[in-house]
Design brief:
The protein is α/β, with parallel strands linked by helices. It contains 10 helices and 14 strands. A hairpin with a 3-residue loop joins β5 and β6.
């Protein structure tokens, strides 16, 4: 007897850009696939997440309530039964190849055009939207990596790796091994899959870890380069362990924050002795390159 496919639903909401990271994280805490789209150059973002109908609804409601409290923005949430193929088709349409900085091209697995010559191509599964390179925080991190690449860091950590895109970029550009960690088992699996897809499996060691509490995270310290593309408040709370696990002269690329949150994030890290080397703005988002003297 043929098995019936699990019925799916799309959870969708419209949010202003400043609230996007809060609601994105809320959906990612429950839903295995999350995408964000913008139909106009300005205006709100549409977040869409796909999950089995009725699965972990209480957890999702709590996560969305917390996102509203942290962002100060309340939104209407819509649940609609959906066909998996329809959501994926929309995701493919909204995920064109991204040319970022001077060195990187980010594309989905659906792209059939020839590779862009002279760039490191990072291919990610187009059915998994997060970490696609379209997000301003990811673009800022890649530009910051380019800026400091000539320093040739030896020990590299991607903290909260998500889809693994920053770990893969560092492995390809710097030709160095990278430790990639995430608190989410789904992200660990996605990073492993993307590393294999991009031929860098041997250069990226992926582990499940809760920030700096993880054994794998601490084992590679002190680091010459740390990526932390998460959110402003967790960045502030982890300023001390970051400073303790950076090597003298080491650098950290912090992202997942809005330009309006820069002062708060910088203050937390300056108290730990880190200094700002350069900002990398991308619209309302910002990436910060910090250095340990």
């Amino acid at each position: 007897m043929a098995r019936r496919a699990t019925p799916l639903e799309t959870v969708s909401l419209l949010v202003p850009e400043e609230a996007l990271p809060f609601y994105e994280q809320a959906l990612l805490s429950v839903c295995p696939t999350v995408g964000f789209f913008r139909d106009e150059d300005e205006g709100p973002w549409r977040l869409e997440a796909v999950k089995p109908i009725g699965d972990r609804d209480d957890e999702l409601a709590t996560a969305l309530m917390l996102a509203g409290a942290l962002s100060g923005v309340e939104v209407m949430v819509e649940h609609v039964p959906t066909e998996a193929e329809g959501w994926l088709a929309r995701n493919l349409e909204q995920f064109p190849e991204q040319l970022i900085g001077r060195h990187f091209a980010v594309r989905g697995t659906h792209e059939t055009a020839p590779l862009v010559q002279g760039r490191h191509t990072l291919t990610v599964d187009a059915g998994l939207a997060f970490g696609s390179g379209e997000h301003g925080s990811t673009r800022g991190c890649l530009r910051a990596l380019e800026f400091m690449a000539h320093r040739r860091p030896q020990r590299i950590l991607d903290l909260g790796t998500g889809s693994g895109i920053l770990a893969m970029a560092a492995a390809k550009l710097l030709k160095r091994p990278v430790i990639a960690t995430d608190i989410d088992p789904w992200s660990v699996r996605v990073t492993q899959q993307n590393a294999a897809l991009n031929g860098v499996t041997r250069m990226i060691r992926v582990s499940l870890a809760d920030g700096w509490k993880g054994t794998a995270t601490r084992a590679g310290a002190p680091y010459d380069l740390v990526f932390a593309n998460i959110l402003a408040r967790p960045l502030c709370s982890m300023a001390y362990p970051l400073s303790q696990h950076l090597a003298p002269g080491g650098r950290a690329i912090l992202a997942g924050l809005l330009a309006t949150q820069e002062r708060m994030v910088l203050a937390a890290h300056r108290r730990q002795g880190l200094v700002l080397e350069r900002r990398f703005p991308e619209g309302q988002w910002s990436a910060l390159l910090l250095r340990k003297p």
